[in-house]
Design brief:
Layout: H1 2-18, H2 28-38, H3 40-43, H4 58-63, H5 69-78, H6 92-107
């Protein structure tokens, strides 16, 4: 019985790791430089100069379903509305770093 339980637990563990999303190993400090060079024109201090309601503040990110690295990466890569797509201009790693920076700053209320 112990052997069956052990095999079952091992199977569950392998299944969990095989089908879980990998953690982003993004670098928020590196993201700051990319953000400053590409995003700060419209989003300085977490604001949104085009649509003030859709700022990068934590409350707004949560309200609009953008409070995750995946959502931010998708937005930066593909653009949406007035925001242009940056997927062809910024490397994927740098986009991931920007997402990490935005989330870090949102948690700090952009201070």
């Amino acid at each position: 019985m112990k052997k069956i339980i052990s095999v079952l637990l091992l199977g569950i563990t392998i299944f969990t790791f095989a089908f879980s999303s990998p953690a982003l190993a993004a670098n928020a400090a590196a993201g700051k430089a990319v953000f400053t060079a590409n995003c700060a024109q419209c989003h300085a201090g977490g604001k949104n100069l085009v649509n003030a309601a859709k700022s990068l503040k934590k409350e707004a990110l949560e309200k609009y379903g953008m409070y995750s690295a995946e959502a931010i990466i998708t937005q930066i890569t593909n653009g949406k509305g007035a925001m242009p797509a940056f997927g062809k201009r910024i490397k994927t790693e740098n986009i991931e770093n920007v997402a990490a920076y935005v989330l870090e700053q949102a948690d700090k209320n952009w201070k």
